[in-house]
């Protein structure tokens, strides 16, 4: 297992430096006992109720990029407190990573209440995903009802040689954006009509169009 050691204290008092060092030393010992490779040691001084922590984002990036697959903490309160703790549990477990603590001398054992809340969060997240997809479908239907005809722009499909620049209907991107769709929703709408286009490409073409329009008016 590739492990991240995460240490936290709540204040920036000089005395807390001793606590951080002790946490790190104990967790290095836990990693050795479990036979884990330590890929990163993160120390920070911040409130456990606060999610906006540099160390937390660094940890989540490493997990998302699969550079680590477990997190070692002194106890669950070092990760976070209150709703912040539940949110971080959910995100870490969703990435397929595991959490180990000194308090459990191994993998964490979540309480029944924490387990129940995490399941509820997962259910809510799934319904948010469904609502998002429904919104995209409604955007596609609305685009067609308002005159979008993708078949008129498909003459270049099948160009196996590829092109450096994707041929996509920029006017439709602008119109859908003005109708309130996000760039992600616009890219999903266009993909539904056969255009293999990313959110980044949609955003770039929109900016190019608006910048060119501004230059023409000046």
Q: Report the major sheet.
A: 5 strands, mixed
Shape: elongated
Percent strand: 5-15%
Q: Terminal Cα separation, in Å?
A: 59 Å
What is the overall pLDDT average?
Answer: 84
Secondary-structure content class: alpha/beta
Instruction: List low-confidence stretches.
Output: 153-165
Number of strands: 5
Detailed description of the structure:
With 218 residues, the chain is of the alpha/beta class. The chain has helices spanning 16-34, 54-64, 76-79, 82-94, 112-145, 170-178, 183-192, 199-217; strands at 2-9, 37-45, 70-73, 98-101, 106-107. It is elongated. Mean pLDDT is 84; it is low at 153-165.
Which features characterize this protein?
alpha/beta, five-stranded mixed beta sheet, 8 helices, 12% strand, elongated
Question: What layout of secondary structure does this protein have?
Answer:
Blueprint: E1 2-9, H1 16-34, E2 37-45, H2 54-64, E3 70-73, H3 76-79, H4 82-94, E4 98-101, E5 106-107, H5 112-145, H6 170-178, H7 183-192, H8 199-217
Parallel strand pairs: 1-2, 1-3, 3-4
Antiparallel strand pairs: 4-5
Helix pairs in contact: 4-5, 5-7, 7-8
